[in-house]
Amino acid sequence: MSGHDSAPQPMQASKSPGLAGAAKIPGDKSISHRAFLFGGLAAGRTRVSGLLEGEDVLATGRAMRAMGAKIVKEGAHWLVDGVGNGCLLEPEAPIDFGNAGTGVRLTMGLVGPYDFGATFTGDASLSRRPMGRVLDPLRLMGVQVAARTGDRLPLSIRGPRVAAPISYRVPMASAQVKSAVLLAGLNAPGVTTVIEPVMTRDHTEKMLEGFGATVSVETDAAGVRTIRLEGQGRLSGVADFVVPGDPSSAAFPIVAACIVPGSDVTILNVLMNPTRTGLIATLTEMGASIEILDPRSSGGEDVADLRVRHSALKGVTVPAERAPSMIDEYPVLAVAAAFAEGRTVMQGLEELRVKESDRLAAVAAGLAANGVEHVEGPESLTVTGRPDGKGIGGGTVATHLDHRIAMSFLVLGLAAEKPVTIDDAAMIATSFPEFTGLMTALGAKLESLAE
Ligand SMILES: O=C(O)C1=C[C@@H](OP(=O)(O)O)[C@@H](O)[C@H](O)C1
Ligand SMILES: C=C(OP(=O)(O)O)C(=O)O
């Protein structure tokens, strides 16, 4: 059951002694969704290890089961027996994606071109988020859409007899939109082309190739990427698919170690794909001590262990071009900035307004509730820090069904002068169910205030 159905679970974080020890980060959310989607589509078996068992990913697994894939857990592995490209079955009931934007948008792309109907629902957060960004290209392929309110969930789609392949320039920096169009192209005859003016996480392109699709990527001198996918090809299961640790989850213990005096922690098995490492680059520019240990390859991706020690941080200007490589990390970067000397300026944040919450507004409100000086612009955030943490804390943060707001402000409380309370920790289970246990084992003072 997803967290939004249960009573709110308030939680409090308090000033903690130096964090210490090693922590293994659970699997990457983006790659885990795709392991279920592509494994469920490909012919034959995919054995997945390291899968993130968060609610978002499990919702994608249920969706693929509803369309014919067999998915079971065996020991530490997930076994996915796929239907074969082009052979998904019509789901008998509406598919509930809970809080999962990636899950619903990629699945709509995947099933859009099928000559059957599918209905998608989600929680209050997901039902507020824009789906037109995925539905517009699907419409160009011949998909019909029935939505009650302006391309929001709940909505139903129905594919044409034969979908038309398209060439589509993605209008905003979004890996979800890029991926939805490519996945739709899997079931359209001919070549589907996606033009990506700004590079976003490349897991779909890389993984589709690993599952046997014919995909090519060309990058021009200006960095514009053209991705071509041949439709209706055969996809085959991957015998041993390994999911690396999620850098967007690692972000919380990393920032906590930077801001809690005396900390020295090692975060194990973190995905270091360059489309995901913007936070590490930014913290390093701010003066954080982050050592990259044992860089290696795992499942076709770069991974490393990261040793992070408490550091005197200074404010920086984060360029807008870096936003796609750290899009989910801005809330916790704002927390790091609250303890940095001087001002940290974050720009190019328009996409934050359409995440699980309006993250710019939610972060600004959380900072305001906890005495952190900041200015919220239409697409920017400036935070003025206090390295000694004096005057920070004491507030209650509204999390708006947003896991990253919840975890970020708990991290703030670990270094603040006064405790920080969040109104609801339930949504943390969507992406990082191990968060509380992992942080507590490192020495973080977290206390549930639930009845
Ligand atoms: O493709 C993905 O797996 C994701 C893409 C990003 O969303 P957008 O494509 O909306 O930027 C990111 O915020 C999300 O958590 C995961
Ligand atoms: C934006 C996020 O996820 P999604 O879009 O998949 O809900 C996130 O995990 O921060």
Automatic annotation (TrEMBL):
The keyword Glycosyltransferase does not apply. One of its GO terms (biological process) is chorismate biosynthetic process. The keyword Amino-acid biosynthesis applies. The active site is at 328 (proton acceptor). 3-phosphoshikimate binds at residues 29-30, 34, 174, 176, 328, 355. It is found in: Cytoplasm. One of its GO terms (molecular function) is 3-phosphoshikimate 1-carboxyvinyltransferase activity. Its main location: cytoplasm. Pathway: Metabolic intermediate biosynthesis; chorismate biosynthesis; chorismate from D-erythrose 4-phosphate and phosphoenolpyruvate: step 6/7. It is an enzyme of class 2 (transferase). InterPro entries: Enolpyruvate_Tfrase_dom, Enolpyruvate_Tfrase_sf, EPSP_synthase, EPSP_synthase_CS, RNA3'P_cycl/enolpyr_Trfase_a/b. Keywords: Amino-acid biosynthesis, Aromatic amino acid biosynthesis, Cytoplasm, Transferase. Catalyzes the transfer of the enolpyruvyl moiety of phosphoenolpyruvate (PEP) to the 5-hydroxyl of shikimate-3-phosphate (S3P) to produce enolpyruvyl shikimate-3-phosphate and inorganic phosphate. This is 3-phosphoshikimate 1-carboxyvinyltransferase.
